[in-house]
Specification:
alpha+beta, Nonspecific Lipid-transfer Protein, Chain A, about 55% helix
Length: about 260
Amino acid sequence: MNAMQDVYTDLAAEAADLDRVVAELDPAGWRTPTPAPGWTVAHQIAHLGFIAHLAWSAAADRAEFGRLAAAAKDDFEGAVNTALADYLTGGPAQTLARWRADQAAATKALAEVPADQVVPWLVNPLPPSILAAAGLMELFGHGQDIHDALGIDRTPTDRIGHLAFFGTRTRDFGYLAHNLTPPTEEFRFELTAPSGLIWNFGPEDATHRITGPAHDFCLLITRRRHHADLALTATPGEATRWLDIAQAYRGPAGEGRKPGQFAGV
């Protein structure tokens, strides 16, 4: 893969771009429903604040992380809903301020962890750069929901390279979410960056291959677009099957998006 900026710089830049989208919204804008059922723009930002706080605690306050992880262990959805309610208390201005503070703190704390160390996470400990890439995935996915809700075009940047890499390394999550056995053979991913660079992942001689725009790949693995609406090509068989189940996060797949749902968007 071609070199890019470090993930912490790109994580901060991605957050800044989303901040510019929501900073001037009026109360009605914050109440705009998003494609995630039951979630408004405010819910999306509240969720990002909670995830950022969780990442900060993993890097900087292990006791706080342990408390949060214990609460989420048996009922993650319930823990998320509780956090959402907390972040939404006080209205949009407070929700925005808390997300900003938590996002900045998480990025700084992760960047300060030595690269050869790991931080605790919900299933397995992770290198700080990988957790930062997961944070970029959250910003990309929930940011897309916000852009879609507000009818705002999004210009992709090469920052998504971190997410594309993350998505290739989490290929098996879709299989696990559907109680399927992942194949033992690695896939080959050949993705075109927004700048035109080619990002290659996986063995060059792999039988199963995915090719196409990296931005479309990121929309696929965050389940923000149905693969029928994306310019991705897969070899027949296992790779084509994977397009139906791809996701870069653990846990239930969720409803995803329907074919043609964003026609004209």
